[in-house]
Structures are given as structure tokens and as C-alpha cells.
Write the C-alpha cells for this entry.
Amino acid sequence: MSQQSKPMFDASTIPGDLCPIAATLNPMLPGDWRSMRPVVDRDKCVKCAVCWLYCPVQCVVEKAAWFDFDLRTCKGCGICMHECPHGAISMIEEVA
């Protein structure tokens, strides 16, 4: 039995503008389109770091006595608020 070879892939058939967005870096950050933002109640925060563990974009920043958020990268998902065992985080509407 002879093995049949498949024709080689022809890259010239792919249009040059197939995915132009992936070729250039987009300057937009998640904080640019967020609709809700987290606010920490500093009296309730005991620095347990649960918000830091669950944050999908790692925007939680450690301060001296509490955790805060880097709002440039925070996408406003609210996971930190839902996971905080002390209720120290609330989500408020983002104002333009």
C-alpha cells in the first residue's frame, strides 16, 4: 500500500486583514469599560486576603491595614464583594 500525501497548506490564501486587532496592542484597559467598582470599608477589612485570592485580574493592592483596588485593571465583576467573608467590600455604580 502506498501512502497518499495531502497537499501542503497554502498560506497565500489567507487574507492579510483576517485579524488586524490581534496584530496591534489595544490601549484600552478593563477599567475603561467597567460599570461597577469595588469600595473597601476600611473599618471592616481585616486583611484576610480572600479578595486577593479570588480576583480574576489580580487588581487587589495591599495597603498598610487593608486591601484596595487598582481601578485601571479592575473590570468590576464583583467577585471580591461576593467572596469577602466580612462584608467589607461593596460595589457602587461607576460615574463618568
Observations:
- The CA atoms of residues 44 and 88 lie 5 Å apart.
- The radius of gyration is 23 Å.
- The chain has three helices and four strands.
